[in-house]
Write a structure and sequence with these properties.
Its EC number is 2.3.2.27. InterPro entries: E3_ligase_UBR-like_C, UBR1-like. Pathway: Protein modification; protein ubiquitination. By secondary structure, the chain is α+β, with helices and mostly antiparallel strands. The protein has one domain. 25% of the residues lie in helices and 25% in strands. It is built from two helices and five strands, in the order βββββαα.
Length: 87
């Protein structure tokens, strides 16, 4: 439905993946543990809870068609020798 735009939650990495055309960027998970920390790759095995402020930010980006802008800003601020193709 959305064409070249995508927003995915990577459960095993506990992160968001923003996609637009042939570019993409990772984002912070809207889920946190009881200590307010993201359990990256679910290593600690702690239960995760939806953090409403983070979810509202993701929701706002999606509804305002801000994914292309978010990806462009992240790519401009990142020096990546491997490039997007190495993902």
């Amino acid at each position: 439905c959305a064409g070249p735009i995508g927003l995915y939650f990577l459960v095993k990495r506990c992160s968001l993946l923003y996609l637009y055309a042939n570019n993409g960027a990772f984002g912070q998970s809207p889920y946190l543990d009881v200590h307010g920390e993201v359990d990256v790759s679910m290593r600690r095995g702690r239960r995760q809870y939806l953090h409403h402020a983070r979810w509202e930010e993701v929701h706002k980006i999606w509804l305002n068609h801000g994914i292309p802008t978010l990806i462009a800003r992240r790519l401009e601020g990142t020096v990546d020798n491997g490039g997007w193709e190495t993902l």
